[in-house]
Amino acid sequence: MSVFSGLSRPMKAAGVALIGVAIVAAVIGGISALSGDGSNEAGPSGTSSTPPGTSGGTSAPPSGTSSPSAPPSTSANPSSPTPPSPTSPGAGQPTQGQPGQPGGDQQASNKWVTVRVFNNSTIKGLADRAAEDFRGSGWNVNEVGNYSQGVIPTTTAFYRPGTDEEAAAKQLAQEFGIKAEPRFEGIQSASPGVIVIVTKEYESGHKGS
Q1: Number of neighbours of residue 103 by Cβ within 10 angstroms
Q2: d(CA 201, CA 154)
Q3: Domain 109-205: CATH class, spelled out
């Protein structure tokens, strides 16, 4: 006896339709179940769901670019240029204080030599005025007097050759524009020191006049 026995014809038709719908639904459900495992392999419109250029979820650097590399190692600091060695002081150059060099120290040292000034003119007080001029320039004048044993042509600083008097007399003569000569016979035995005998032209033509 059929399950549709006792049903009216319309009811039978409806039952057949429902059974057909159930069968179709079962078929579709099976197909869906079978294809469910691969649903993650393809994205919409058949494209892969994984973004282009990525694999396994790890981003790869864009093609054509390289990952940053460590800065190139620098070599040891270049040695700084060696400064030129200083020229030895005094090499090829005269230094002050050497014999024969008219340095300030040497000039000052000559002025310790005793200077004695004598008047050989008729001008009263001329030796005193010359002595004051010499003292004003730093010379060591310790005697002033008159010289009457002869006539001296021009104001002159006399010295004993080979002694400190020579350098002192020449320096004093250059400073005051007078002559410097070795001692003559009449004053050879006089006391040590530079002997300056001044004459009348000192007052009108030399320093201190």
Answers
A1: 14
A2: 7
A3: alpha beta
Answer for the pair 193, 147: CB distance below 8 angstroms, yes or no: no
Cβ–Cβ < 8 Å for 145, 195: no
Does the pLDDT of residue 100 top 50, yes or no?
A: no
Q: Residue 115 — left, alpha, or beta (φ > 0 → left; ψ -120 to 50 → alpha)? A: beta
From its phi and psi, is residue 144 left (phi > 0), alpha (psi between -120 and 50) or beta? Answer: beta
CB 169 within 8 A of CB 157: yes
* Strand positions, DSSP E, the chain: 54-55, 58-59, 114-119, 140-146, 156-159, 179-182, 194-198
Report the distance separating Cα 158 and Cα 153, nearest Å.
Answer: 13
Residue pair 158/187 in contact by the 8 Å Cβ criterion: yes
Q: Strands, DSSP E only, in 17-167?
A: 54-55, 58-59, 114-119, 140-146, 156-159
**pLDDT per position as a tens digit, 160-180:** 999 999 999 999 999 999 999
Which residue, among 147, 207, 144, 140, has the nearest Cα to 174 in the 3D structure?
Answer: 207
Domain assignments of the chain as residue spans, ordered by start: 1-36, 109-205
Residue 167's SS3 state is: helix
The CA distance from 179 to 154, in Å, is: 8
Tell me the per-residue pLDDT of 12-59, one tens digit each, with 9 for 90 and over: 666 667 777 778 777 777 666 665 554 444 444 444 444 444 444 444
Task: Write out the two tokens for 120.
Answer: 């050989």
The residue assigned the tokens 């020449």 is: 170
pTM of the model: 0.49
